[in-house]
């Protein structure tokens, strides 16, 4: 009798804990933002010591993943995840200078996004993006005459490319892969050795240097980097070209920042443009548009380097001990005002 009562009490406690966990999960996913601080308690995993000893980089030389034991510093396929403290920025700058590189930075400033965000993006890029390196900015907009004039340092240029204004903001987001693919096959591809593609509604807040360069570069999404894989918002519509089955996917990557060599980005943008065209021909639209297709690409073609959330951080998440020096900060999202 006592044993049965004990079992019943244990079951009640067990199911209460399950319900509490589900309730808290629902709150931090869909409700009170403060509950999202709890996700910092979810362990990110540990880089095997055998892998850590082999981590090197073409721009930073030997990496120091053991300097950040509280975070995951490598991927399952052996690529580094770059966190503050794991690299020597002076070595990265020296290597980039020796290679005599030109680095491209593309950004789309369409509609009200131009007036709202572009000037601050460019001004802070001049302070922090690849300082001391040759840089060519490519601004894609339907209003070239409205692009602000920003004083540029030596060896830094600004190109403005006209694009057609799409009817819906979703179409603006999705059309950029097709536009980037064409630009990478044209003057941008001839001018730059490596290119980063970024969203305009953010600004630089710290050094974003050559330590970020690699053949292909993906950015961990700051809202999802602690989540278990089964919770990540991959595309699940089986009819979409971006679909990823349960159990597929490594990390969830943010389309606000991605980069690599011209050849690698040509492959990425071609893949995404084809997938978007496939979906459109069938009346489909992936949940997160071009970002869904980008995540599918990086599942099939693993990035050579992954940037930690320090490189693109959302202030809405508040301060976290593991985020030492944010490089990019999201701007407040004012979708009702900016998207018409």
From TrEMBL:
Spell out the CDD domains in the cross-references. Glyco_transf_6
This protein's record includes keyword Cell membrane: no
The cellular location(s) given in this protein's UniProt record come to:
Membrane
Provide the taxonomic classification: Eukaryota, Metazoa, Chordata, Craniata, Vertebrata
Q: Which InterPro entries match?
A: Glyco_trans_6, Nucleotide-diphossugar_trans
Q: Which residues bind an alpha-L-fucosyl-(1->2)-beta-D-galactosyl derivative?
A: 221, 291
Q: Classify the source by domain of life.
A: Eukaryota
**The family this protein is said to belong to:** Belongs to the glycosyltransferase 6 family.
Q: How does it sit in the membrane?
A: Single-pass type II membrane protein
Task: Write the protein's name.
Answer: Alpha 1,3-galactosyltransferase 2
The cross-references to Pfam families, in alphabetical order and at most eight, read:
Glyco_transf_6
* GO molecular function annotation: alpha-1,3-galactosyltransferase activity; metal ion binding
Q: Using the UniProt record, give the first listed, main subcellular location.
A: membrane
- Quote the record's cofactor note: Binds 1 Mn(2+) ion per subunit.
The cellular component terms of Gene Ontology attached to this UniProt record, alphabetical and capped at eight, are: Golgi apparatus; membrane; vesicle
Cofactor(s) required for function per UniProt: Mn(2+)
Q: Could you tell me the Gene Ontology terms of the biological process aspect for this record?
A: carbohydrate metabolic process; glycosphingolipid biosynthetic process
């Amino acid at each position: 009798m006592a044993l049965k009562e004990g079992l019943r009490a244990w079951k009640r406690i067990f199911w209460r804990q399950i319900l509490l966990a589900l309730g808290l999960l629902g709150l931090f996913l869909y409700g009170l933002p403060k509950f999202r601080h709890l996700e910092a308690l979810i362990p990110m995993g540990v880089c095997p010591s055998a892998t850590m000893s082999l981590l090197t980089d073409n721009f930073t030389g030997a990496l120091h993943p053991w300097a950040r034991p509280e975070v995951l510093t490598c991927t399952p396929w052996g690529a580094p995840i770059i966190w503050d403290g794991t690299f020597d920025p002076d070595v990265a700058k020296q290597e980039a200078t020796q290679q005599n590189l030109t680095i491209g930075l593309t950004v789309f400033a369409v509609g009200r996004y131009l007036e709202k965000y572009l000037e601050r993006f460019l001004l802070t890029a001049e302070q922090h993006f690849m300082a001391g390196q040759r840089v060519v900015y490519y601004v894609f907009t339907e209003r070239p005459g409205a692009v602000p004039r920003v004083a540029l340092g030596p060896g830094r240029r600004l190109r403005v490319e006209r694009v057609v204004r799409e009817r819906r903001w979703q179409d603006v987001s999705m059309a950029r892969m097709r536009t980037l693919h064409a630009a990478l096959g044209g003057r941008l591809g001839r001018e730059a050795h490596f290119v980063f593609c970024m969203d305009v509604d953010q600004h630089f807040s710290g050094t974003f240097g050559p330590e970020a360069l690699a053949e292909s570069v993906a950015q961990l999404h700051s809202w999802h980097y602690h989540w278990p894989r089964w919770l990540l918002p991959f595309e699940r519509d089986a009819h979409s070209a971006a679909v990823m089955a349960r159990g597929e996917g490594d990390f969830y990557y943010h389309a606000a920042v991605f980069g690599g060599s011209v050849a690698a980005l040509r492959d990425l943008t071609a893949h995404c443009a084809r997938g978007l065209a496939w979906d459109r021909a069938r009346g489909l639209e992936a949940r997160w548009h071009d970002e869904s297709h980008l995540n599918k690409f990086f599942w099939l073609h693993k990035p050579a380097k992954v940037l930690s959330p320090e490189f693109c951080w959302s202030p809405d998440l508040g301060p976290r001990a593991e985020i030492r020096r944010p490089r990019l900060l999201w701007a407040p999202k004012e979708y009702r005002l900016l998207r018409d």
